[in-house]
Structure formats: structure tokens, C-alpha cells
Amino acid sequence: METIAFYSYKGGVGRSLLLANAARFLATLGKGVVALDLDLEAPGLHYKLGGGIAGKKKPARRGGAVPYLVATAQDASSAPPLDKHLIDVPVPPESGGWLRLMPAGPAPERAYWSALKELGERLRLDDPSGRGLMAVLDLQARIQDELKPDYLLIDARTGVTEIGALATTILADAVVCMFVANQESLDGTVTVTEALKTAPRLKGQAPVRVVPLLSRLVEEKPPRDERFAGGLRRLLELGVGKAGSGKVERELFVLPHDAALGASERVVGGDRKASAFSPLYKAYLELFQTLFPSGAEEARRALERLEAVADVRAELTREPRRPFGFEDRLRPWSDSAITEGVSSDAAWGSPHSRYADLVCRNDAGRPLMVVEYIAEGSEAEAVEFWKRPSDVRCVVLLDRSQRGHVERHVHARDRSGTLRRIERWDLPFPAEFDLFPDLGDRSVEAMLDALRQGRAEAVAWLIDEWRQSMGGFTGRREPIWRPERARRILDGLAAMEDLRTAEEILRRCSANWSPPWPPERWHMDRMMFEFPLEEPNRRLEDDLFAPLFWRLPIEAVREAMRPTNYPGETLSLAGYRLLASHLLGLNFDPYRTALDEGRVLAERFTSLARPEEGDEWLPMRWLGRSLEILVEQLQLSDELPPTLVWEEHLRQHPYRLETLEQARDTIGVKARKQMTAPAGLRRRLRTAADRRELATQGLLGEYDASGRITLYSAVIEATAELLGLPPRHLKSVAFIHLSVRALAHQARDLDGQPGYGFAPTPQTSPLERESPVHVSLVQAFTHRFILRLEDPNLLAAFEKLTPYQPEPYRRWTAMQSTPLELLRALLMRARVSEAIIGLPGTGEFP
Amino acid sequence: MDVDSLHTLVTGAIWRAEQLEDRGAESAAVAWKEVSLIEEELANALAVSEPEGRIARRGAVGAALSAGDYARAEALVQRYTSEEGTPRALRSELRKMLDEDARILEARFRYAAKHHRVTAARGLARQLQEGGAFGLAAA
Q1: How far is the alpha carbon of B9 from chain A, nearest alpha carbon, in Å?
Q2: Max CA pair span of chain B
Q3: Which of B77, B128, B129, B130 to mutate to test the interface with A (most CBs of A within 10 A)?
Q4: Nearest CA in chain A to B119
Q5: What SS3 string covers A483-536?
Q6: Domain coordinates of chain B in residue numbers?
Q7: Which of A163, A424, A446, B27 is the most exposed, having the fewest neighbouring CB atoms within 10 Å of its CB?
Q8: What residues 41-80 of chain B have any CB closer than 8 A to a CB of chain A?
């Protein structure tokens, strides 16, 4: 039996709590432990271990050390029965250990203080006959001989007292000397520790081992003043410390202040549940490794296990740190969904029982995932158990590798219900159990399937995967260059029909995207500080966002591009940039254009207001005025397109000359409704198709003088029906055509000049016709752009529409082999209104 | 006070102490202390060479032990064994009386006695008495 006394020069250092934890820890290791409370003047150990005593806050019996010693002093003929003075403290039965408490007595009842007074009268420890000393030694020896525990832990009296001295100098093999970080406590502890080292011992007793322990430390390090540090050094010379960190060879054991565990005085020693883990418990276990050498290995393993499981638990319940990743769409596990330290039972579909550190359940309480910390080399056994049929779909096994870090082995059931190891390290979120039939199959196809079923959570994963495949870091794995895989993702995303999913896709692959700002945030902050894009984000925008911008349903594009925080705000201009820079050879930067305009306006304004020198914000304040027009280009309208307005107007009033707006009013609401009714619209469009008059500009859509693009949804849908095309693809084709036209006008050349020659024709007369050369060029660029997007659906829609369009719209077929540079050169000339005679491929080109 | 009177007193004191002890009275220890004091007076009055003087010395030590005053008994033994002319048998007998007390203690605390000697415990107890807790009050 080893006897360890817990002593402190001053009270309130957490001595009894440490002892209670140590006792419980040892018992759960399978040791026999007796805890003896010799803090006779202020006993409390029965409160600390009271949680295990039928939930009572005071001992169930009237026995204890004081009544026992009084009985000994009263009756010299026979020793009192020991059992009457001991209380059994429950410990987990599977541990094989036991814990018995001998409290000081039934304190704070009056009977206890009477007994203590009587003891003082009858038994004096300094009685030279040795009677008093022998009585206490006899108690210790009787515990040793009758109960045969592995450890006797004594709560020694605080301060300088005879019973405290007896417990520490005579009874104990080792003494834990606790103190707090103040000079008074330290000085007293140094004095007593020095005395302990020189105190006489009984014959055959080894020198007492002293373990100084700085307790309830609030700061990270103990005070640094010289006197205090000197005291600590002296304690370290006298006692046992732990291996130091860095250049320090040895340092004192320290128990940090723990508001939760320390204040509640909860005894967690030996607890396997991760929620018991705290800095204080960690410090306990580090101390136990030194204090109980026979249990050192178990303490180390317990610490590792708790740390590993606590880490996993924290990870399962932690809100995501990366705000734009896949995981931020998946809610973490709630605390209530996780149960700790559970033995599986028949209710899980398994007739056998097995301890699982964490069990994660769904809302109905069914276990979906278990986390188990396994002993080295027992993975196969654990897998063998969990592979039995049950609701559990994922098993996470943790073990300590030979290199010392925790390794995770994630096993998941496939579609056939077979449990197999999967190649993922991260822990599944609750939604994934609904999202994927097989947690191990996070292939692009599986994710796209999930997306098609409306699981928008998969968007972020697919975008991460796209980045990864394009050789970019996502923070999850090493990048691998897999362009074909990236292409599959791009095509899969572009094929999405659901508008909300498509909108989500666009938002997620925009580097600018963020949730709506809080109202107090001024939008200028964002403009000034968030605009510069890092290179990886630029790549994401150029190579993913931009193609998707043109390929996804136009309604989703419109919604995604809608400003959320200020006029003129847009998700990204990468789509327009792709068209302008990569195809037309022009520069489209409406922010810069708007800023230039803002600067001009600000100069005019400041000449009157005499602003302070260096006020660089003024141009920015004018910015929004121009941005709104330049960025919010796309409109979807159910109105009658100009071509049909003029047609009806000419029918009703053949000799009246009016502008388009006037004509729209003149023909009346009733006529407009009749014309946009499906039957009427189909009839007119069929006629237009027969006459090859399905012009994109003026009928399917319009790029008008205000700089906006309008798509006439009803007309496009009816045309699509007529041609047997999906409306979304026809809309995209029209949008591309009109965007080419808009950018040919608005985008800047290297001189910073817009294409005035491509300004939309004012709709002042039904006789106004767009330039056939412009139409041909725009169609040629539209064709090239669709080829570049590599979208067969768009190409099919474009090719199927062309035969029904006016002659200039069809000329692209003859321009397919014209070099792009030549088309660009022609565009440059057209932009400055230079006359172009003939076109390449038509036989008219000079 | 003459020897006869002391004899009379000690006879009465011994009777009283035995009666109290038989009845388990707590004041028996006080009565034995009184016996020891009277026996000590007798021992002072009677030389060690006289039989009655030797009886008085044995009586003083024995009564001190019965009173539970081991310190006094030990002091008396120390004094009587160092007296000039003390017979070897008396010295031995007085020491045996202390040993007998230790044996009683060992019998009473049999668990402790298996691991520790009473004499060692007595030595520590004396140090505790002299130097206080942790020996911090030692000179």
C-alpha cells in the first residue's frame, strides 16, 4: 500500500477536490483505494465524494476517523469494527477497482464536534507513551492489513498542526504540497517542505517524496518577481517536478484555475467522457502520471483518449470558420444530438454491447455515427463489431499512431449496406446523411446527383473540388491538376435547371460574394478595400463564374446579379470581361468608367464647395450614379417587343409618325394583351419565321439607347416552342447576342474610347433599321463565343434559330473561317463609324 | 510527614484507585497519580537498601504507568536506576515495568505493532512534544 498525503499550508487551494479526483481516477484503473479525511477541524471529503454516496450531501452513517479513534481510546480491550466507519463510493463496475471513504465523521453535525472534543481529551499525539501516535498508526496499519488497498490517500490538515505533521511526516510515503500564487502561501509551503525533508521517520520508512503543486493559477505563468521565483526554485530543489518545456529542464506542476470544473467541484477523475475534459483535468492527469507511477501509463492513455475524443466532439459541434466553403452550408451537430460514453445495445440492432465514446443521432434519436477511441491494433475487431447490421452508417475510429498523433479511420456503409473504409478525413455533418446514400462516395457525379435533387449544399463542395482540380488550394487537400474533372464539374453545374440552385452556383463561384452586410457598414468600405482580387479568386471568376454566367438560366443570372447592398453593386463582372477581353479584344471596366465620370462631377462640385485638400472620397461618392446604369444591364420583360409594337401601330395608324413609346401607348393595352396572348403570339411568330424575320434585336430582345438589355420572355418562350428548343437555351443565345452588341458599344479600346459607332439606333420610326454589317459582326462574335463556351445546347439553339432570321444574321456561316483578329479589326472600324464595304466570306470583302 | 503516615495514606490511596478502576471511572487515572506521588514520597524517605524503600520505588513507577503518565514513569525509572547502591535486580525490574507497558501498548495496537516498534513511536512522540509540529518549534 502506498500512502499519499495531500497537504496545504493555507486552505482553499482545491486540496480535497484533487484528492477526490485522484481517488476516483485510481479506482477506475482497477486499483483499491481508501480515502481518509484527517482534516479534522474542517472535514469535507465526504462532500467531494458525496456525489457517489446515494446523492446525499452528508455521510449516510455516523462513523469516521474521529469516532473510530475515540472508540479506540475508550476501549483498550478490542479494536472497533472498521466497516462501521467506512463508506463505499461507487465506481464503474467494469473497472474492477474500488473506493472506500473514511470521512472525518458526521460533520458538521453537533455529534461530530463533541466526538472531536473528546478525542482531544483522550488522545494526544505528543504523548511520550506513544499511545496517541500508535492509535493513528494502528488505523493506517489496519486499513493496510484488512482492506489491502493499493493506495491510501489522506486529506491532511491545513497549516502547522500535530495531526497534519503526523499525516505528512510519518504516515505518508509521498506528500502533495499545494499552494497558490501568493507570497504568503509560498513562504509557508517552503518552510513546511524543508521541514518535511528533514523530519524523522520510523524505522524502515524511505524518505518522504514531496510533490509541490501550484494551484488555482489564473494566469498562464506564475508571478515573475524575484522573491517569488526564488521560492519556486527552492521548492523545485526539494521536491519532484515535471519535465520542462523549452530550455527549462524541470518545472513545477501547476493546476490552472478552472471556473467550470473548479467552481462546481465536480469530481471527474477517471471519467472517460469527453465533456469531462478541461485544462484542470488535463493538469490532474499530468500530475497523476508522476504521482502514481504504477498508473502512469494509464494516465497517459486516459489523457490522450480524452484529448482526442474532446477534439472530435469540438469539431463536430463547431460552427465553420471558413465562411464560403462547403461546410458552411451544413449545420454542425448540435450538443443534444451527441451522447457520450454509450454502450451499444440490442436496440441498435446489435445483440452485443460495445463502448462508444460518442454517438451522433438524428432528430428521431436514431444513431447515425459512432466515434470510438480504440486501442492499438484493434481496428479490425472494432470494424468486425460495427459491420453488423444496424442504423449506424458511419464509424470513426481514432487511434494513436506510432508517431504520436491521432489518426482517424472513417468507415461508412455503401449503398448495399456494407461497411467499408473510405478516403476521407473530415467528419460527416448531419445533412450529409440525407444528402448521400453512401457517405464514402463524394464523387463529382454523386454530388451533381445531389444537386439535381435540390441539395444546394453540394454547390460549395463542387466549387471546392473544381478549384482543387484546377490546381488551387482549398485548404482541404493537396491540389491535383485534373482539368477533365474540372470540366465535368463545369458542365454539370451549367446544366442545372433549378433557378435557386443556379443562383446559388453563381454566388458561390464569385469571389466577391458575401452575405448581405449589416446596415451600419458603409458600402465605400467594400469598394475601397475588398475590390482587389487575389489571383486564385480571379481564376475562379474567369474560368468558372464567367462561363456559368452565360450558360446558366438567365432568370438565375438576373437574380444573382441583383444588387443587395447599394445601387450598381454586382456579384461579378467576370462574364462580361470574358466576352469583352477574351473575344472582342476590348476592356470592360464600368467601375473605372464610373469613377472617371465621378471624378469629373466631383471636380465640378468641389470648385463650388471648396473642399479640403486631399479629399479623395468625393469622386467615390459620385460613383453610384453611373454604376447603376452600367452594371444593372439585364432586364426580363413581358412587354411587347418593338418589332411587334411597330407592326401593330402600322396596322392601326399607317400614316401617323410616332416614337416607340408613343406607339406603345397608341396601340392600347387591350391590343398589347391580345398580341402577347400565347395563341396570337404564336401565330405572329410563325409568320415571322416563315418570312425569316426572327431578329434577335427588336423581337427576341433589345439593347436600347439607355444602355440596358431587355429580353422579351414571352416572345422567346413562344419562339422556342415554335422551333422545338428549350426556352432557357434560346434566352441565353439572345442574351449573348445582345451582350456582344452592348459591349461593342460600351467597352473601351486601348485608347479608353467606347464604340460610339455601335450606339443603339433610337427607336423613332418603324423604318429605322440596324446596320447589316453590325448585325453580321455581332452574330459572328456570338457564334465564336458559343463555340468557346463549348456548350452544345447553346450551339444547337443558335444554329436552329439562324435559318429563321434575316439575312445579316445568317452571314456568320460564311465567316466561320475568318481569323478572329480580322473580325476584331472590323469591329474596331465599325466602332468608329468607319464604312465597311462588304464582309469577309461574302465575296464582297475588298 | 512520617513514614507511618505515608504508609497509611498510600494504603488508602491504592484501595481507592483500585475501586475506581474496577468501576471504570475516569478519575482512576487521577487516583493512581496520587498513589504514585505518595510512593515517591515514601521512596524519598526510605533508602534503596531497605526492602520497603525498594517496594516504594516499584510502587511509584507502577502507579505512574497505571495513571497513564508514561513520562513520569520514565523519569522515575531514570532517577531510581541511577541512584547509588540500587541493586541490579531492582534496576532490571524497573526497566521491565516500562517494557511491560510497551508490550501492553503493542497488544492494544496490534496492527501498528506489526509494522512499527512502540519505542520508535515513543521517540517520535517525544520529538513532537519537544519540537512541535514539523519540528518547527525545536530549539
Answers
A1: 28
A2: 49
A3: B128
A4: A130
A5: HHHHHHHHHHHHCCCCHHHHHHHHHHCCCCCCCCCCCCCCHHHHHHHCCCCCHH
A6: 3-108, 109-139
A7: B27
A8: 68, 70-71, 74
Query: Does B112 contact A164 at a Cβ distance shorter than 8 Å?
Result: no
Does A134 contact B109 at a Cβ distance shorter than 8 Å?
Answer: yes
> Where are the extended beta strands (E) located within A657-813?
701-703, 709-712
The Cα of A142 is separated from the nearest Cα of chain B by a number of Å equal to 5
**What does the pLDDT average to over B15-35?**
91
Assembly ipTM: 0.83
Grid cell, residue A767, equals 423604318
- pLDDT tier, B101 (very low <50, low <70, confident <90, very high otherwise): confident
Name the B residues in 83-122 with CB < 8 Å from any A CB. 101, 105, 108-122
> Cell for A445?
457525379
pLDDT of residue A472 exceeding 60: yes
Q: Which residues does chain B have within 8 Å of residue A130's beta carbon, measured at their own beta carbons?
A: 70, 105, 118-119, 121-122, 124-125
Indicate if the pLDDT at residue A275 is higher than 80: no
Helix axes B70-81, B51-66, angle to 10 degrees: 160
Residue A131: closest C-alpha in chain B: B105
Query: Is the CA virtual torsion A432, A437, A439, A442 positive or negative?
Result: negative
The C-alpha of A248 sits at a distance from chain B's nearest C-alpha, in angstroms, of 32
Secondary-structure class of domain B3-108 per CATH: mainly alpha
**Over residues B56-81, mean pLDDT:** 92
A192 in contact with chain B, both atoms CB, cutoff 8 A: yes
Instruction: Give the pLDDT band (50/70/90) at residue A459.
Output: confident
**A137·B112 Cβ contact <8 A:** yes
Name which of A73-87, A160-174, A197-211 the model is least confident about. Answer: A73-87
Pinpoint the alpha helices (H) of A239-366.
259-264, 279-291, 296-317
**How far is Cα B96 from Cα B81, in angstroms, rounded to an integer?**
12
Q: Interior CA angle at A765 toward A763 and A770, to 5°? A: 60
- Say whether B132 and A169 touch across the interface (CB within 8 A): no
Average pLDDT, chain A: 83
A1 is written with which cell numbers? 500500500
Classify residue A37 as left (phi > 0), alpha (psi -120 to 50) or beta.
Answer: beta
A273: cell is 467522457
Asked if A701 contacts A711 with a C-beta cutoff of 8 angstroms, the reply is: yes
- The answer to whether residue A164 neighbours chain B at the CB level (below 8 Å) is yes
Residue A499 to residues A118, A459, A505, A718, Cα–Cα distance (Å): 88, 13, 10, 20
DSSP-assigned letter for residue A481: B
B112 chain-A contacts, CB cut-off 8 A: 134, 137-138, 140-141
Place A324 in a pLDDT band, splitting at 50, 70 and 90: very low
Q: Residue A777, SS3?
A: helix
How far apart, in whole angstroms, are the C-alpha atoms of residue A50 and residue A41?
A: 19
Q: Answer whether A288's CB lies under 8 Å from A280's CB.
A: no
Per-residue CA distances from A829 to A517, A779, A845 (Å): 44, 17, 14
